[in-house]
Write a structure and sequence with these properties.
The complex is a heterodimer of chains A (313) and B (285).
Chain A: E1 17-19, E2 26-28, E3 48-54, H1 63-66, H2 76-86, E4 91-95, H3 108-121, E5 126-129, H4 134-147, E6 154-158, H5 163-172, E7 176-180, H6 185-197, E8 205-208, H7 218-234, E9 244-247, H8 248-252, H9 271-289, E10 291-296, H10 299-312
Parallel strand pairs in A: 3-4, 3-10, 4-5, 5-6, 6-7, 7-8, 9-10
Antiparallel strand pairs in A: 1-2
Chain B: E1 2-5, H1 13-21, H2 24-36, E2 41-47, H3 53-67, E3 72-76, H4 79-88, E4 97-103, H5 110-116, E5 120-127, H6 135-152, E6 159-162, H7 173-186, E7 194-198, H8 211-225, E8 229-232, H9 234-251, H10 259-272
Parallel strand pairs in B: 1-2, 1-8, 2-3, 3-4, 4-5, 5-6, 6-7, 7-8
Amino acid sequence: MAFTAPKETYSGKVYPVTIGTGDKAVTFGGENVLPFHSFEGVTPSRPVISTEIQDVPPADWPETVRKPYEAVSGDPVTWAKFCQDELKAQAITVRLVGTHPDRENRSPADAVKTVKDLLAAVQVPLIILGSNHAEKDTAVLVAVAEAAKDKNCIIGKAQEANYKTIAAAAMANNHKLIAMSELDINLSKQLNILITQMGFDKEKIITDPMCSALGYGIEYTYSVMERIRLAALTQNDMTMQQPLLGDVGMYVWKIKEASAPEADLPQWGALEERGIAWEAETAAALMIAGAGLLVMRHPRAIKEVENLIDELV
Amino acid sequence: MLIIGEKLSIIAKRVREAMMKKDKGPIQEIATRQWKEGSGVIDANIGPAEDGGEELMQWMVTTIQEVVPLPVCLDTTNFKAIEAGLKVHNNQWGKPMINSTSNDPERFPILELGVKYNCDVIGLTVGKGGLPADAEERAHIAAEIMGRAMEYGLPLDNLYLDPLVLQIATSQDHARHVINAVKMFREMNEPPMKTVVGLSNISNGCPKTLRPILNKYFFVMLMDAGLTAAIADAHEMAEVMQEKSIISDVIAGKEIADKQKMTEIHKTLDVIMGRTLYAHSYLEM
């Protein structure tokens, strides 16, 4: 007797989200099955990998991931063009880390200039992230959302402490919004409810349950993502049907495995390969858990994950 | 259903201050109110009470029983404080209760007190190894506690098994594990084992307006499962008793006239049974 694979049927689906404009717009989400379960239903879009840059030179990145951008990262526009034209990035994420009060403390006006220059220079969709300083992000993200009006960007991240202002700015300027909570599925649901109660379209939210790197609590992120997907698909929970974000690069490239020299820890293997593999593994795991949008840094790690997606779809 | 009035807890600021100042007024007022509202036992939770616990527990027991003809549930981890309290407890108003023994070896000696003073003893189904994962693990621990009670000579009739209610806001699955555990505990002996829960922990960490709603419907589910006793707010539980028939109608799938109430009951039961994911605003969705 021929083997028949058991199939699960689901009652819910993930909202498809399109970002950017024109030919370069990309879509992720839209599936009515668990990640890559195309044999059970529809998976209209591949996960999208967005290449991360920042508004100030990446002096804080370890050498492995700084090196591929050495010639271009002095200026965000040159950097972004390199990602788009040379690396063929599908989307670019600019993290406005220089606006953090403990860093360069760049003003909202400085951030607006960076964003306007980027929008003028690249055609791929832009994801605009603050510095994760709840108070400063309010001022910065409101200003950049306005500056990027109608460019269909993603603005982030809205958190419990600042979601009202940021969501209002994203709504007024036709952007998508990242809603971030800290590794708690119930608070993640609550934040989505609060944002939609403001009149924000639930299909324009991307849920960030907070990332963690392999070896640094990835199992928590994995589990929350998996449970969010199951609530969306098996319970048809409309507050949990947003695509999920894996903000991978930032979490991976600050751990010691990504920067500890071979001379000190020869048993850990080649430094460069180690860091790249770490980022690719972390991203792959979260993609399997349900992340439809990944923010990554190293071009080779991105390539590895793209190859994996090719094999899985 | 036996209600063990929960309000005399050191966690409450007013009670804590009264305990510290040995001010009988607030303690007696709260004890009396709980009695009038239908409590059958008054819980006296003095916390770990490492310093002066013996004297404090004696003061609590006598202060409560001066005005209320009910037994007291002596709630502390301090063994000596419990024994001191038992010595002054007025048994003419019923058997005292001890909260609690568990599967942690440090809590085994509580059973000796239960035997020596003929008390009811709450057996909390946790061990040294952390929280039980599901109903089965709770039942496994319950069996160990029952075995130990028999070893110490405490009649099983004096043992109340407590499946440990956790917060729905952070441990949603445990709500239904607790309900299942109550059913399983009952089946572990003939006549059925007695069961008790610390009810309001279910809504700990939830918005204030939601707390009585979760407490009440969770209580109904537990009652249907065969619960014997609850450490709870007697006032809230009296309200449940009035609403019991409409809640049971909704559980049975019947329509009721008050549509808003019906929605509230459905949504809350879905959250308790894990059919929808909990969020603080679940009633608004």
